[in-house]
Each structure stands twice: as structure tokens, then as C-alpha cells.
Request: fold
Amino acid sequence: MKPGRLLLLKSLFLLKLFLSRLSLPGLLSRTLLLIVASSFAGGLVNAEQLTDIYQPRVLEAGVASDADIEQRHGSWGVGIAQIAQENLPSTLGLNASARYFAGERWYVLANIQLANLSDRVIRDDQGETLVKKDVTSVLVNTGLGYQLMQGNASFSGNRSYPWQFALEGYLGEQFNGESSGLYYGVGSSWQLQINDFWVSLDLKNFTIADDNLKQAEIDNGIQWGITFGSYY
Reply:
């Protein structure tokens, strides 16, 4: 028998004994006993119902597996850049790049760029040609980037877009027609993410270890540009 029902029976027994000592009429005594018993029984039933309704269960938050999380391994992009080398007019360059995310903030990059090196023939003091006219330079380089800062930008106040600012280092080779040289430099990239796409503003400072370019004093320069891309 449940403890609650046992308590009810004991209470009714004591109440009946108490009423019998008061010498009340039989009908009145049975009526009082019935009222008290009904009150006790109703409370007992309600208590049991509340106990039966409460059935707690453990809830787990999160995803079922790593497969439910969209993962981005890297990005790719194409862009244009304005290149300004010493003692040369600025020229337009076209580039394609790819990045592989090597960590939470680090990424490895690769880049190829085509540009017109010079719009005129450059000769040394002896009249030897150092750089031919309208030579297309081909740059192939790798590099390493580090995400220094990140945040959110809003243009209308209704929606914000994540952005990140990164510092980059470059190392590669630039081919300048009949000569070539080691390419190295440093730069920065400010990238704005729009859903699955991104746009970045890039700035680079570079040096080309090409003897012909060094004699012509056009081996250093800077470039700035814009790149559009997506993720993979």
C-alpha cells in the first residue's frame, strides 16, 4: 500500500475515534467523517497526478556530428592591381590567387600575376638593352598570411558583414622576358565576406632580385589592387 493511502486510513480511524467520544448523533458523525475523508482523498489524488505528470528528461544541445558543420578549407580569387616600380610609369596587372587555411588564423597562399613591365626600351650606359619594350612579366609566388584583426562592417545599419585584416609575406620568381629574379615582399589584405563570396583590398611592397632590373634601378616597387573570390 502507498504511504499516502496508509496515512489517510490512519487519519480516518483517529477521527472516527474522536467523534465517538463526543457523543454526536450517528448521522452527524458519519456526515463529518465523509466530508473529511473526501477532502483528504481529493488532495491525495491531486498530489499523485502531479507526481505522475512531472517526467524530466535530459536534453542535449549541439550537432550530431562534425559532418553537420559546414567546413571551408580555403579560398580562390581573381583581381586587378596597379603596379608602380621605381623609374617606371605605373602599369596594370592581372592576377589569380588561392589560399589554404592552415589554422584558425594562419593560411598559405599562392599567386600568379601577368603585367606589362615597361612601355619603353631600357639600356645601360654602354647601350646594352636591359629591358625590352612591352615585355610581359610573369610572377609566380607563394606566401604565408596571418589574420591580425577581425570584426563586422555595416553599410546600411540593417545588416553587417564580417571582415578580417591580415599581414602577408611573399616569396617567388618573376620572369621578365630574357631575365628573371627572386621576388620577395610583404603586404596586407583587408577582406570583406558576403555570404559565400569575398572581396579584398590588397597592398604590397616588393623587391625583384633581377640583375637587369637592378642596373636599370627598377627592381623595387609597390602595388595595390582589388580581388574577388569565393570559398571551397
